[in-house]
Each structure stands twice: as C-alpha cells, then as structure tokens.
C-alpha cells in the first residue's frame, strides 16, 4: 500500500493538510539531512581553506549535481540556486529579459499564471516598451495548443508559462509549446513550481530554455529555489545581483564576474537549504515520481467524484489533463467562510485568489477554495473535506 | 459544531450576510470610499449623504465578500443612518478597540441597546483572529469615507 504519512512528523497531529500546493510538509529525511549537515559539516562555501569549508562546498555542489539529474540537465553548471521560485522568475526577467528585449518585442504568458510570472514582465513592459500577450483559457481551465499558435508571432521573443496551474492544476504541454516558441526564434521559460513535485521534469527532452521552481513545494525547505538555464544562454546573461561570491576579481576600477552558475549566486547562498533540497529530491526519487503521480491521481479522481456530488458546489478545475489540485466554489458560501468552517474541523485548505487575480477575473469569481494533494494525502482526507463542506452548508442553511 | 463557530455564524450575521441592508449605490452621495482587502479580495464601496449639520442622512454600500464582511457593513449602515458624524467616529473607535484589545467593554460610548446587540454579534469574530480584518473592513472604509468628501 502507498502510505508515507508516517514519514512526516508534523502529520502526527490531528490535521487534514490539503494545502500542499502552497507548501509541502517535510519528511524526516529532509529534517535530518539539514540538521546532520549543521551538526557535522557546516561552514561557508568556496571561501575557507580549511577542511570544513571544503566539505561544505563539496556537499553544496553535490546538491547541484542531484538537481541536475532530477531535471535531466545536460550540465551541472546550468543549475542556479536561488532563494525561491519567485526570485528565479525575477532573475529570468531582469537578467535575460532586460538585456535582450527591445521595444515592440512580445512576451507571451498565459491567463493561468501566478503573479510571479506576470509582474516582472509588467515591469519590463513599462521599462522597455515591450508587449505582453496573454493566452486565454477555455471554460474548463485548459488551453488548447492552437491558442498558443495564435498568440505566438514573429515578434515573440519569450514564451513564459506554468507547467501546472497553481489554481486549477491544468497541465500544459511543455514540449509542444517550447517547439512553437523555438519555431519563431523565441525562448521558452517554464514555471515548474507546481509540477516538479508531481511530474517528471526533463529539460533535455522538452528542450526548455529556462525552468524554475521552489524547494519548499517539493518537500524541501523554504528559502531555496532553482533556475535551470541552457548553457548557451547562460553565457550571455549579465549578473542579476552583484556582490561577493559572484566575482572572479574586484578592484575599484574593474570587476570581473565569475563563470555561471556562481555569477548568479551573489552573496552567501542557501547552503543548508541546498542540502535539504537534495534530501527531498532523493526522498521523492526513492519512492518514485511515477508512483507518487499515480497515487495522487487516484486521490484527485476520488475528490472530483465526491465533491461533484455536493449540491451547489462547482468545481472550476476541469481540464482533461490536470495535477493534484481541486478548486471550487460553493453557492452562497464565500470561500473564506468555507475555509474558516473547514479549519474548525481540522481541514486546512487555501481560500482566496491564490496569487492569480487575473485568472480569478477570467473565471468570474473573486476567490476559490483550493484543496491540493501531496504524496502523503489519503482518501480519508477527501472524506474529511467533504464532511466539512456539508457542515458549512448546514451552517449557511443550504 | 463548536461554540466559537456558533458565535461567529450567528443567525443575525448569516441573515445580514445573505440579505445585506442598504445594499445599493447612491447617486447624490457627499462622501464615498472604496475599501479593499487585497489579501482576500473583499471589496466594499461605501456611500454617505451627510447634511450641513453633520448628520448622516443616508448611507449605503455595494461590494462582494464573505458573510462576515458583508454582515458587518450591513449592520454598520443600520447603526449610522440618522446619526452624526461625531457619533460615527466614536463608534469606529469603539469597534476598533473591541477587536484589537482584550477588553470587550464597549459600554462607555453611549450606543443604543440595538447597536450593542449588533456589536456583540460581531464580537464573535474575536475568536478567529485571521477573520477580524473581514469584520473591520467596512469600518475602515467608513473612516476614509468620512475624510473623503466628494467634490
Ligand atoms: C505556479 C507558481 N509559480 C510561482 C510561485 C512562487 O513560488 P514562491 O512563492 O515559492 O517563490 C508559486 C507559488 O505559489 C506557484 O504556484
């Protein structure tokens, strides 16, 4: 039987945790790896000539190697450690975008995007006079590939999109979209924040140019993210932040920057967090992403079936291909009221706009209730969710 | 259902939440403000018609949000119609204190018994700290509307 709840100490308490898309809980393997590293091998990296610093540097670089394998990058130096998915998105826009976009160029995003993949492009729009085109969703929350074909033109220089929507769970076909981008000479940026914990990532197979995610949604720690950049692009990109660690030499007249990836890791990086992320990736790999995906799929199917039986409840996430998220609204019950009542029954869900206000507008709602699943989720969690919703309906008299 | 939840979703709150009173726009408003809670998306557009003696002749609102924010706005309009702006300011501070201090005592601001009942109904929110901002949105909007005369 697929049962890994016991690996997650926090889930020993009485809680039905259905907010994994916001952040995943951490298995003991991650907690122990970080704490052991702090106890035995921690120092700043790439600086000390002493053994401990060397050991810490080796461990940090071995974490980079683990990430490289996890996403099947060709080269280890294509993996940049950032402080999170949001910083990764900013790095793409403010290093690559700012350097290479010209007035009149187009950046294509989708209606599904998280604010992290909208706002940096809006800043560049204001700064450089680029155009931001938005690929619209269909009523079921999916985006047919034809709509990308329509949106992408000769003017398109960047196509930046979520692999999986954080609100609707919709899965977008990375390989096809990337091919469309490449056909007009544009680069493809993949926001994998909601996919890396559910689906296999293969940057060589999909040929993505940039791909990013956060550690904390992948059962790893907060404070670390990853940005993959294809080497040919990496070499042309100017630094994003400047300071220590990213230089090869500094005088007051001139500074020479280090090679990538260190050029993009200014300051002391998230060293302990990198060790935690490595442990998280190993943990997930040991279970097997295919097994995790199959388990989550069965939970999702059960949730979709069970919730759709509730009168007055409308599921908004109905794309044919979707990942472990169900987003819904309940007639006459605002999502915050539903969230408060569910919380009272020990069920933790997200209620709100999920940092995707443009998507809310397009769905014609101001907020939704979102239940999201992880490898530790169980059928009973869905039962508790449904029971809580019936209680909410009772309180609201409908 | 536990007691706190019952306190929060009392009949009067559910009733006002479902059928908010004075829920419409106002063409001849003298004061107006838009209250927005960016975290949860609740929105309240508040209209006041204040005469030269500083009496609130009419008050209404439009908007969307959870039961708590709608009920709070609805009851607020009921409490303020026909009252002076001085009284409104006093009430705003009383409500603010009610939610921010551990003192639930609001007796000293000379509110009527009906108003006291309304405020008591709202006070159930105190047990749900993350929902307090839902209950206070209307009142903060009132505060800015009073300072925001339409030209
Ligand atoms: C699709 C998507 N992109 C980007 C982000 C931003 O990630 P973080 O908040 O970890 O920086 C999130 C997190 O909610 C997300 O779901």
Ranges of chain B where pLDDT stays below 50 over 5 or more residues in a row are none
What's the rounded overall pLDDT mean of chain A?
96
Count of DSSP strands of chain A: 15
Distance between the termini of chain B: 50 Å
Structural class of chain A: alpha/beta
Helix percent of chain B reads 40-55%
Coarse morphology of chain B: globular
Record the strand order, biggest sheet of chain B.
1-2-3
Which two chains form the greatest contact, residue counts included?
A: A-B, 21 and 21 residues
Tell me about the biggest sheet of chain B?
3 strands, antiparallel
Q: In what range is the share of β-strand residues of chain B?
A: 15-25%
**Class derived from helix and strand content of chain B:** alpha+beta
Which keywords apply here?
heterodimer, A: 398 residues, alpha/beta, 7-stranded mixed sheet, 4-stranded antiparallel sheet, 13 helices, 15 strands, globular, B: 151 residues, alpha+beta, 3-stranded antiparallel sheet, 6 helices, 46% helix, binds pyridoxal-5'-phosphate
Describe this protein's structure:
The complex is a heterodimer of chains A (398) and B (151). Chain A is an alpha/beta fold and 398 residues long. Chain A is 39% helix and 16% strand. Chain A is built from 13 helices and 15 strands. Chain A has helices at residues 28-40, 51-71, 85-100, 119-128, 145-151, 174-183, 203-206, 231-234, 271-287, 289-308, 335-344, 357-363, 379-395; strands at residues 16-17, 79-82, 106-110, 131-135, 156-162, 187-191, 210-214, 225-229, 247-250, 255-257, 313-315, 325-330, 347-348, 350-352, 368-372. In chain A, the strands form four sheets. A seven-stranded mixed β-sheet of chain A has the order 2-8-7-6-5-3-4, sandwiched between helices. A four-stranded antiparallel β-sheet of chain A has the order 11-12-15-14, with helices on one face. Chain A has a two-stranded parallel sheet with strand order 1-13. In chain A, a hairpin with a 4-residue loop joins strand 9 and strand 10 (255-257). In chain A, helix 10 runs parallel beside helix 13 (379-395) and helix 11 (335-344) packs across helix 13. The longest helix of chain A has 21 residues, at 51-71. Chain A starts with 15 loop residues before the first strand and ends with a helix. By secondary structure, chain B is an alpha+beta fold. In chain B, 46% of the residues lie in helices and 17% in strands. Chain B is built from six helices and three strands. Chain B has helices spanning 3-8, 11-18, 67-80, 85-100, 113-122, 132-146; strands at residues 31-37, 42-50, 56-64. Chain B has a three-stranded antiparallel β-sheet, covered by helices on one side. In chain B, a hairpin with a 4-residue loop joins strand 1 (31-37) and strand 2. In chain B, helix 2 packs across helix 3 (67-80) and helix 3 runs antiparallel to helix 5. The longest helix of chain B has 16 residues, at 85-100. Chain B is globular. In chain B, 38% of the residues are buried. The A-B interface holds A 332-337, 340-341, 344, 351-353, 357, 360, 366-367, 391, 394-397 and B 1-2, 4-5, 8-9, 14, 18, 39-43, 64-68, 128, 131, 134. Bound molecules: pyridoxal-5'-phosphate (PLP). Pyridoxal-5'-phosphate binds next to helix 3 of chain A. The site of pyridoxal-5'-phosphate (PLP) has 13 residues of chain A, from helix 3.
